[in-house]
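Supplementary Methods, section 5.1.

A reviewer requested that the exact input to the structure prediction be made available. We therefore reproduce it here, unchanged from the version used in the analyses.
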Amino acid sequence: MGPEITQREGGVCVCAHTDRKWAQTGAASASSWEPLKTSVRRAGHGAGLLQGRGWRAGGGREPLVPTGPRLPRRRRRRRGHEAEAEERVPRLLPGVDRRPPLRTGAARLVQKAELVRLSQTLSLVPRLHWLLVEDAEGPTPLVSGLLAASGLLFTHLVVLTPKAQRLREGEPGWVRPRGVEQRNRALDWLRSGGGAVGGEKDPPPPGTRGVVYFADDDNTYSRELFEEMRWTHGVSVWPVGLVGGLRFEGPRVQDGRVVGFHTAWEPNRPFPVDMAGFAVALSLLLAKPNARFDATAPRGHLESSLLSHLVDPKDLEPRAANCTRVLVWHTRTEKPKMKQEEQLQRQGRGSDPAVEV
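The structure derived from this sequence is encoded token-by-token as follows.
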């Protein structure tokens, strides 16, 4: 079942979802769009496309800011990621402040760190489109700036999780499905477009060969994983490390076919796989418009709520050397301890809120 199998390789387009309090990345899709080109303009340069990762066609890297003699009494430009964002955000996203003040407690402290780490992993993957869905009422300067500075081909979407679906104070993260609205918003955009607040506005054209992958921003990814998923024809699967209380979870394969799953928790689920352990051909998702994630699915059944509409377990495509290699790890970022910060804030000596962390 699924689209006709061919031998042509697909490209990679990654979509992420992020939340200001408990961000995790959502859908990622691999597509056979043109080799990576973005409409990001370099600081101080005229209009023109950035090709690849900012390298000249003839070799050598172009500067991010104009070169030339330093003007007298002019403050030196700040370097690095934040400087790039400060230069690029006003050009891509008119009306977004360059350096908005950071409201204490407004954002999850590790959100930017996780997204920077993920974006730099994705920058190693050719022909990739990052579709990031933000869990907010509108686009935040932090996420908008990070996307603009990433150099990646991206689309920025926004949808707020309904209050009834949000975690309540003191609830463990596994009580409620997370990222459901954001992943479904990514699927809606891939199918019909509309609503993009930044980056590429239009979805892939009809007939595009690609793969959709749902990623968490705190996971660890080998770039080999994205090469494995390029050849997906329907739904491909692989092991995930450090998940489910095990060293790894994943499909059991015999004679090139999936015959079961190595898992300890509810092994009788229709698809006992982690969100990071599968990818779906874009053509299959477009052919099944009713395939979505179900916010009312029982604990651990969110993946099954989508996959049950797309494929029979016996037709899953094992990747990563017949599911014998771990190329993605379900790592988690430790929540930083802010005891000293809180103490200094009470004394009026807290860290400068204008410094984006």
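Confidence is low (pLDDT under 50) at residues 1-8, 21-83, 88-106. These observations are discussed further in the main text.
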